[in-house]
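ok new one. same drill as before - structure tokens go in, u give me an amino acid for every spot. 389 of them this time. try not to just spam alanines like last time pls lmao
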């Protein structure tokens, strides 16, 4: 693994000589110049920079982002937990872009096998495709949640880039994608044909305006993810100017941190990536500082996981049964006595038991239970049922 990485030159970071003992600059075991590659035994999280940005449309230069984010992250203080984090350095650009994709996929695959969660700092969002390929060797279907102002479907016949990676994932064989969820799309950036495709595939997409009315609705969406891919252009330009495709509208910085904390708290999530951060456009390193805080919230969420998913011991949950008129299935809800979080049990064919057993227990909210009590079918339940069938 070490052969893919270049070490971090922490000495170049502002304030590196004065790190407090409880700051991440002291706590994170980083691959530094002149030092050994970090030992991965007992590690929970691994920070990885990726310098590949050749397919980041209108945003070349984002491959330099990782060190700018690190400089700010290392100054932040650890919360009330004992973090076991390594920083493996930066995956260098390959001679060909395919070499970079292979390197990222190989590194992530090795980390996932060790139950270490990669925290990727890109680079272009096309690297999500490499992240996806890392799960192939695990032979399990996965869910991807993209925090993005658009769907990045592009043209299925076009080459892979930051605006077409999703179509490459959908068309890839063998296909291991069970569900894709978009969080925060803005309608004027999305072709109506793309919205129709989302519906046909029973994927779910959530408009920025609808989510901002109640940010807690994001939690069950993110709780269902194996992979979260965060395009920094989903954040409004005034809060995150460091992006060649920045827009006046988007999530506020505080909301972005809330989303990443939800991601950290998800027992199911096993990798997260932050992409399209471009230092060339970043006023006063504002975006790098925000992403550092977003990673801080992700780490904080991870160390506050409730370990109540997947459900094993039903005695730790309150079970609710709701019958829907004119529907052949009743809906079974479970509420965790530990975290007060909700799930729906969606039935699936016996012959698909092994393939889909990770997906039949669907994270939901109390509002989904209220919907069922009004004799209405929750959208989350119906979409999952269609895919399981």
């Amino acid at each position: 693994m070490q052969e893919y990485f270049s070490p971090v030159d922490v000495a170049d970071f502002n304030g590196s000589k004065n790190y407090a003992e409880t700051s991440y600059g002291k706590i994170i075991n980083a691959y530094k110049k002149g030092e050994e590659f970090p030992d991965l035994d007992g590690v929970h999280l691994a920070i990885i920079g990726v310098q590949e940005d050749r397919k980041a449309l209108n945003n070349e230069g984002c491959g330099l982002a990782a060190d700018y984010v690190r400089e700010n992250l290392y100054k932040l203080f650890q919360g009330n937990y004992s973090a076991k984090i390594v920083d493996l350095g930066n995956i260098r650009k390959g001679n060909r872009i395919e070499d970079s994709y292979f390197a990222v996929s190989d590194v992530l695959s090795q980390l996932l096998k060790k139950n270490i969660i990669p925290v990727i700092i890109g680079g272009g969002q096309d690297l999500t495709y490499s992240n996806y390929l890392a799960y192939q060797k695990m032979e399990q279907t996965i869910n991807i949640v993209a925090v993005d102002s658009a769907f990045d479907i592009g043209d299925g016949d076009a080459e892979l880039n930051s605006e077409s990676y999703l179509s490459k994932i959908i068309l890839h064989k063998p296909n291991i994608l069970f569900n894709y969820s978009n969080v925060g799309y803005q309608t004027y950036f999305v072709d109506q044909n793309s919205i129709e495709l989302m519906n046909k595939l029973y994927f779910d997409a959530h408009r920025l305006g609808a989510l901002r009315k109640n940010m807690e609705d994001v939690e069950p969406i993110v709780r269902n993810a194996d992979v979260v891919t965060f395009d920094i252009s989903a954040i409004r330009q005034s809060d995150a100017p460091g992006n060649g495709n920045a827009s006046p509208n988007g999530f506020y910085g505080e909301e972005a941190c809330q989303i990443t904390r939800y991601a950290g708290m998800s027992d199911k999530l096993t990798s997260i990536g932050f992409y399209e951060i471009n230092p060339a456009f970043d006023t006063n390193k504002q975006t790098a500082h925000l992403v550092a805080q977003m990673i801080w919230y992700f780490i904080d969420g991870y160390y506050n996981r409730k370990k109540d998913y997947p459900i094993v011991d039903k005695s730790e949950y309150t079970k609710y049964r709701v019958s829907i008129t004119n529907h052949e299935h009743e809906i079974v809800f479970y509420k965790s006595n530990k975290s007060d979080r909700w799930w729906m049990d969606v039935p699936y064919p016996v012959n698909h038991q092994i393939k889909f057993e990770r997906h039949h227990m669907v994270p939901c909210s109390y509002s989904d239970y209220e919907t069922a009590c009004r004799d209405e079918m929750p959208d989350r339940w119906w979409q999952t049922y269609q895919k399981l069938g």
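The chain has two domains: 2-302, 314-388. and btw The chain has a mean pLDDT of 93.
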